[in-house]
Amino acid sequence: TDRIASQSPDLILLTGDLLNSGEPVTEIATNLISSLCEIAPVYLSLGNHEIEYQDNFGTDITQLYQDAGAIVLEHQYRDITVKGQSLRIGGFYGYCLPDKFLETEEADLSECMFLWDFENTDRYKILLSHLPIAWLKNDALEEWNMDCVFSGHLHGGQVILPGIGGVYAPDMGWFPGRLKGVFDSKDGKRHLVLSAGLGNTEVIPRFNNIPEIVCVDLVPEGGW
Hints:
The chain is of the alpha/beta class and 224 residues long. Helix content is 24%, strand content 22%. The protein contains seven helices and 13 strands. It has helices spanning 2-6, 27-37, 48-57, 61-67, 109-119, 133-137, 140-143; strands spanning 12-14, 42-44, 71-72, 76-82, 85-92, 124-129, 148-151, 160-161, 165-166, 168-169, 173-174, 181-184, 191-194. The protein has a six-stranded mixed sheet with strand order 4-5-6-7-13-12, with helices on one face. A three-stranded parallel sheet has the order 1-2-3, covered by helices on one side. Strand 10 (168-169) and strand 11 (173-174) form a beta hairpin. The longest helix is centred in the N-terminal third of the chain and has 11 residues, at 27-37. The radius of gyration is 17 Å and the shape is globular.
C-alpha cells in the first residue's frame, strides 16, 4: 500500500479476484481493501473467483467488501465528480459481447441492456470489467462507447518465456499474444487497460512475470 499511497491517487480501481475461490480465508482481501480506503475511494467489480467463492461458501462477497470500505459495482454504476470533472464508473462481471452478437444468440440481452444504459451519458465513462476477452477479440472496444475499460483475469500469461511471451491465459488458450498493457480502439479514443495483477498460484507460479500495480493518468480530449 505504500507504493500506492506514494502516487497520491484520486481513485483506486480493482477488478476482482482478490481471493481464491477454493480457500475460505477472506482477510487478505478485506484487510487490503481497508488499507486502500485510507488512501483514496476504492471502486471494485467482481471477478470469477468472487462469483465461485459465493457458490462454494455461501458468503455475500459484495457485502463483505462493502463492509471493508469498498464501493462494489456489479451491474451498477455511479456518477461522481473528481476535481471538478464528471465521471461515470461502472462495474460488470460478464463477457460484454457487442449487441451485434444478439443476432447469433451469443451475446446476453441483460448484459447489453446494462451497457446500453451505462454508455448513455456525456460523462467520461470508466468500466471495471474483469473479463477482457470481448474487448481484445470481439470488437467490444469498437462497438461499445466506453472511454476507458479496466480489466484483468489473464494473469499477464502467468508464465512468460523469453522471445515467445505468455504461454497460457484463461479463456484465451495457449500463446494468446496480448496479455497486458494499454490497447486502443481504431480511432484511438477508447482504451482497454489490462493489468497482469498481483496474484499468484501454487499450481503454476508466476515465472518471468512481475506482478504489477497500474497507475493511469486519465486525460480526456481538451485536457483536465
